[in-house]
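FW: tagging you since you asked about this chain on Friday. Here's the raw sequence from the shared folder, copied in full. Didn't touch anything.
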Amino acid sequence: MSATATESGGFDQPEAAPSGLTHDQRTAALKSDITTLGGRVDSYKAKTAGALGGGVFLLLLAAGGMYDLLNHNDSLRSAIGASAGVFQAVVIALSVIGLLLMLTAVFREIRRDPSHQLRLEQLERELADHLDSCAALESPE
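HL: got it, structure written out here
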């Protein structure tokens, strides 16, 4: 076992693959690293998607309100009990907030660090290689 643990230390990132680990410890360490980094990547993507989705939703609401304002349709405004000035302010606020959310999503996507995604893919490949090597050691050929 100690020879294979030494071999597992020869991966691309030695800090993630310390020598002296058993196969099970190495597998657990890789899975833990993948879970941690995957959670970070997914969280960042979810926040970006939330900002984008929220921006689109608010812009659609603002577009509907703007349509009613331009066509002098008072049914929606009177249904919610708002004056023309308040309704216009709400439409403008929805537009501004929607645009800000869309810009936030764009800036988050621009400044996203692709090295996290690449590192996650590397760890997944490393785990697959490790599991293959463990399977090869256990099966006599």
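FW: Confidence is low (pLDDT under 50) at residues 1-17.
HL: agreed, and The helical segments are 2-8, 23-70, 75-80, 84-110, 114-138.
FW: great, closing this out.
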